[in-house]
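[Structure tokenization] protein backbone as discrete codes
[Encoding] learned vocabulary of local backbone shapes
[Protein] chain in single-letter code, fold in tokens
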Amino acid sequence: MPPRKKAPAGQAELPGVSTMAELKAILWRSADKLRGSMDAAQYKDFVLGLVFLKYVSDAFAERRDQIRDELVADGVPESRHESFLDDKDEYEGEGVFWVPEGARWPELAAQAKSGAIGELIDGAMDAVMKTNRSLAGVLPRIYNQNNVDQRRLSELVDLLSDARFTGHDGKSARDVLGEVYEYFLEKFARAEGKRGGEFYTPASVVKVLVEILEPYKGRVYDPCCGSGGMFVQAEKFVLSHRGRRDDIAVYGQEANERTWRLAKMNLAIHGIGGDLSTKWADTFYEDRHPDLKADYILANPPFNMSDWYRRSDDPRWRFGTPPAGNANFAWMQHIISKLGTRGSAGVVMANGSMSSKQSGEGDIRTALVENDLVACMVALPSQLFRTTQIPACLWFFTKDKSAHAGHSDRQGQTLFIDARNMGTMLDRTERVLTDDDVAKIANAYHAWRGTPSAREAGLTYEDELGFCYSAVTDEIRAADHILTPGRYVGAPEAEEDHEPIADKLDRLTKELFTHFEESTRLEQTIRKQLENLDV
């Protein structure tokens, strides 16, 4: 193969599909094609599997065109083109999956109305898995089952044929699909309600974990990785700090088969060569990375899991045997057991973990504090998780609080951050942490710890009433080892109110009467609507 020249820009877009927003809209409509015939969990697998197949086909075609252009530019006779175009190494070397004949999207789309499209798609999934070892056992083969409406499936194929993953906002096909895939995971998580929390962690929460841990380089592990969102955010962090994808090595495990497949596809789309094991497995029953010592661990385990595999003599229970009815402290001890010499971890937990004393949980929490493993506690605002109303917090563990590598010596200290008043409501039920919120939380931690990023930004740490406080272990002992940040940071000073009492009373009275009037208007409207109901 002649030396490569600069690749041409992405393929031209199809008419009418010019922006990411339009592409997402088209793809989400594709989900609706199947919404009526199956539940949210099923059509998630259907649609994401098809989206993935369309992506690998588009990326393959894009690479094929690039190779052809390079051959023409280098004056290679056309009679020799085929041997280069069919060289698998030319694709794999560029991180593009090889798509064999018969599995390429245009061939499938041409037979969408044949009545055998489900069988053809299952065959294409098989063929792609056989020719790409990293995808073995990952892609869904569910399109030719009896409960699949083949007519709807053919319509879905037609709709996806209008969506191209190249040529959007100057992004590569991989970046576009990565963005689309994340968008879909979020939409599906909302559609599935409570069950959606099993595979999706809100993006702003993941950002807080990643921005505090700063995983520039090393082994990153998630023992309950869901759809792999922690890894994707860690990769974004690395790339945004001028690092390379292979600066981090990813290890994960997931107990749910379908979610494990989603995670494998998610990593493949983002070009992350992670080790999620060769199969799904329960972390407590079968640790698939028994010898792993990680530099960074990010995790959002299921809250308050009551049905879990528990062995009382498990060596991971170094700080006490967790209760059978709640796995919170089992997850935390598993994570600590996986930390390397200077490893650190960020874990999403239910708020109860900060203060519970039932069934030995208080003793385990005490042992974690007394062993100086808890670096930071963050109380999160409510409604960040659409899938659950359980209030949540973040635990940060570290094996090293010393002044190693120029850090501030924080041995015997724990940072408490109360972020309960932060965030912005997206709608009536869902709140997000803004980038400024995430930066404020992360900066407080880095300033406290004296990290290189804090020194570079000129950040110095000071306690801030109502927001952050650095407590020594004696203070935590005095609080009976309860780790609720609100106990330590205190209440913020109230802003001085210059409004005269009479004026305030008049203003509030007017506001109240306005609300009364609106309430009356809404009541009348609802009564009329009810009267018009024809039942």
In short: The domain at 193-487 is CATH 3.40.50.150 (Rossmann fold). The chain has 18 helices and ten strands. The first strand starts at residue 218 and ends at 222. The chain has two domains: 20-170, 193-487.
